[in-house]
Amino acid sequence: MFVLKNAWRAITRAKARNITFLIICVAVSASTVVGLFIMQTDKDAQTTIYDTQRVDAVISPKANGLGNGKTARPLGWEQYSAYAQGLQMTGNQFNVYYYETAPAKFRNIHAVGSQSQDLQLVGLSDATAIDKGPYGSITRTNGSNIDFSNNSSDSVLVSQALASANKLKPGSQLSMEDPKDPNKTIEVKVAGIYKPANKTSSGPSTNAVYSSFTTFGSHGFDQASKPGDPGHDLKVVFQLSSPAAYDSFKENLSKSGLNQKQYEVNSPSLRDYNNSIEPLHKVASKVRMALIAILVFGAILALAWLAFGLMQRGNELAMAIAIGVTKPRIGWQLALETLIITLPGLALGIGAGSALSPLAVRSATSLPGIRQTPALSTLWQVVGLGFLVCAILAMLASLYAAAFRTSRLYAPVTPLPHTSDTDSKETA
Fold first, then answer.
1. Backbone dihedral region for residue 106 (phi beyond 0: left; psi -120 to 50: alpha; all else: beta)
2. More confident residue, 370 or 358
3. Angle ∠(124,127,130) on CA atoms, nearest 5
4. Do the Cβ atoms of 42 and 281 come closer than 8 Å?
């Protein structure tokens, strides 16, 4: 208790310096927790979370795949079917969704925008394809959705702009030219009105009429032209369970005969995922360098704080030794003084860093699945490093007492100069 009281008195005699160093301890500890959490989250995003991503894979022609600036035609249904059968034989598990577009000539409505704009019929395989169609996601604002059952009636979705320009509403009947026989018409009913996500008031996204693929295919729009012809687009998306399954999928596609010089396999979903974590990765790279600088600077400040405090205690230590206080007891007191400052600073810093870490990560990414609090392993790293620094400072303080030279107590004192009587008289 005597040593503790003396240590506390010594600390309070230099309040400003010790409070400043306490704040530095808190700041360095908190920064370390936040920095390690950001780096761990970045690592998780590139490994653990990445490995659990569901993957959408598409096959598309390579630019200049045929040489001389020519590109191969997009794959058709026969080729997709052949590759799908080959993949199933190799054990690949996958689901698919798809859409196909074709020009459509409507008799009783006109396109929005310039006179050259054409209306397009978009056949969707299921509800998944609605948000991943040729013009991005759409939001239904009125009416009902199209029916994707095989026994559905011919129903369509039209855009707000198209409905407004042609005075359409749910239940309106539309007539379009039969692609197999221009003299015949096909009647479809407006099921609902949609709003495109890109918010344009004209152009392809507002002039697209969505239907089920059953409606699209049963009326021959898939046979009227070929994928790659003007306005005709076919996109089949393979849904895979993980990036590992995606890698196996690409390998087996090559074995099934896909010409890798003319076609490439890529994943829009993985591309979007990697783009979403890119800001976090950039922040983590900067944090890594900043954390090294903070730790080095913090170590320098800790040594400076300790050295400055001990250098001013020479006379105090000499007096304590002179009255019989042993060096081990003095060393324990000096070590205790450092621990009283550094350990609370470490604890407060870890608490503050744990509270700030989620905010720091969320400012860089909104990725679902990330940790909301630092992992115990991260906190233990900071605790271990902090205890090591505290122990080193306490040991250095104790060693200073042990190495204190008692000969300084007996150093000769230089006498003060005295004046002679003659000098005194002259001065007088």
1. beta
2. 358
3. 60
4. yes
Return d(Cα 39, Cα 360) in angstroms, integer.
Answer: 11
Distances (CA, A) of 279 to 35, 284, 383: 15, 9, 29
Q: Take residue 131 and report the two structure tokens written for it.
A: 């948000």
Would you state the structure tokens that stand for residue 361, as one six-digit string?
């990560």
Residues 189, 172 contacting (CB under 8 angstroms): yes
**Hey, which bits of 130-274 come out as E strands?**
138-143, 155-159, 173-178, 181-196, 208-212, 233-240, 263-266
Alpha-carbon distance 292 to 294, whole Å? 5
- The whole-angstrom separation of Cα 253 and Cα 58 is 11
Q: Which two tokens stand for residue 337?
A: 């003084």
Where are the chain's structural domains? 2-49+274-410, 55-267
Q: Please name the residues in contact with 234: beta carbons below 8 A apart, sequence gap of 6 or more.
A: 74, 75, 76, 77, 98, 99, 100, 101, 227
Least confident range of 61-70, 153-162, 190-199, 279-288:
61-70
Segment 87-107, tens digit of pLDDT? 888 777 889 999 999 999 998
Count of all residues that appear for the chain in the document: 428
How far, in Å, CA of 214 to CA of 153, rounded?
9
Q: Please, what is the average pLDDT of the chain? A: 86
Q: Are 305 and 21 in contact (CB under 8 A)?
A: yes
Q: Report whether pLDDT(168) > 90.
A: yes
DSSP code at position 264 = E
- Adjacent-strand bridge partners of 158: 193
What integer pLDDT is reported at residue 426 of this predicted model?
47
Distance separating alpha carbons of residues 252 and 324, to the nearest angstrom: 85
Indicate if the alpha-carbon torsion angle 150, 152, 155, 156 is positive or negative: negative
pLDDT at 36: 93
Torsion of CA 237, 64, 118, 161, to 10 degrees: 60
Residue by residue, DSSP assigns 117-147 as ---EEEEESSGGGGTTBTTB-EEEEEE-PPP
Give the separation between CA 53 and CA 166, rounded to whole angstroms.
43
Q: Strand, coil or helix: what is 419?
A: coil
Q: What are the distances in angstroms from CA 251 to CA 66, 225, 313, 368, 371?
A: 22, 31, 73, 29, 33
What's the rounded Cα separation, in Å, for the pair 366 and 128?
23
Chain position carrying tokens 């400003």: 16
CA distance linking residue 356 with residue 364, whole number of Å = 13
